[in-house]
Design a protein that fits this description.
- By secondary structure, the protein is α+β, with helices and mostly antiparallel strands.
- It has two domains: 3-74, no CATH class; 82-143, OB fold (Dihydrolipoamide Acetyltransferase, E2P).
- Helices cover 44% and strands 24% of the residues.
- Strands 1-2-3-5-4 form a five-stranded mixed β-barrel.
Length: 151
């Protein structure tokens, strides 16, 4: 066995140990695969430049191609919390929203929020609204069109 193959094998073991220590994050599996390919090339007496090039190409390609796909499955049960859960929710205007007068409040769930109209229009109390975005402590809302029954 040649020295280059031993070095690639040692690197492969190091990357696998690091991966085993951090199993959820997929830290070094990409480099372990690159080391394996480079080790195979070393066994076949390929030049060192080819071993290094294939190590880099394989490692980078695996990160670029697989990371976006795998990232979705690392924490599949993430739930929106706090402000993220409010965006898109609906509530009712409790105090008329007037951007020029800097007044307005909406009730979202059990909480009252200072509110502004996304469109700049006044929205009277009792209007059904949807939260478009949050800026600081203000909810920017737009009116939800309630379909009317056709008789």
């Amino acid at each position: 066995m040649n020295l280059a193959a031993i070095i690639w094998f040692a690197l492969l073991l190091v990357f696998l140990v690091v991966e085993a220590a951090c199993p959820i994050h997929l830290v070094s599996i990409w480099f372990a695969a690159g080391s394996l390919v480079a080790m195979i090339i070393a066994f076949l007496h390929g030049p060192v430049w080819l071993q290094i090039a294939l190590f880099l190409i394989i490692s980078c390609a695996l990160v670029a191609l697989l990371w976006p796909f795998i990232k979705k499955f690392l924490n599949p049960h993430l739930k929106k919390t706090n402000i993220d859960a409010i965006i898109g929710s609906q509530g009712y205007v409790t105090a008329e929203i007037d951007n020029l007068a800097a007044t307005g409040q909406v009730k979202l769930g059990a909480m009252e929020w200072t509110a502004r109209s996304t469109s700049g229009r006044k929205l009277p109390a009792g209007t059904l609204v949807k939260v478009d975005r949050i800026e600081g402590v203000k909810a920017f809302v737009s009116q939800v069109e309630v379909p009317t029954a056709v008789e």
